# Entry
Amino acid sequence: MNRDDAATALAALGHPARLDVFRLLVRAGEAGVTVGEIAQRLGLPASTLAHHLRALTGASLVVQEKQGRETLCRAGFDRMDGLVTYLTEECCTGLPANHDAA
# Structure
């Protein structure tokens, strides 16, 4: 993952409703949750949920699959793992010396 991909993913998660949707899907695991069940569990109107799901799928944080008349949503676990890795890959490595400081 590069900086631009990470910024896109973080921006998609930067709304409370989208964060709630994503966390719900993470809890559901690979089984996923239908769009209707997400709306019911989170109390979101269909049009509002559709808007938030577009942002999350656009950032590849949510994967959707049509199953008959239903749309099943799953967390994009690979994308999530990539984001966490990007954010933590240089954890505690120290900072280079700044020789330009006045």
Helices lie at 3-13, 16-28, 35-42, 46-58, 77-88. Residues 68 and 97 are 59 Å apart (CA to CA). The mean pLDDT is 95. Strands lie at 33-34, 62-67, 70-75.
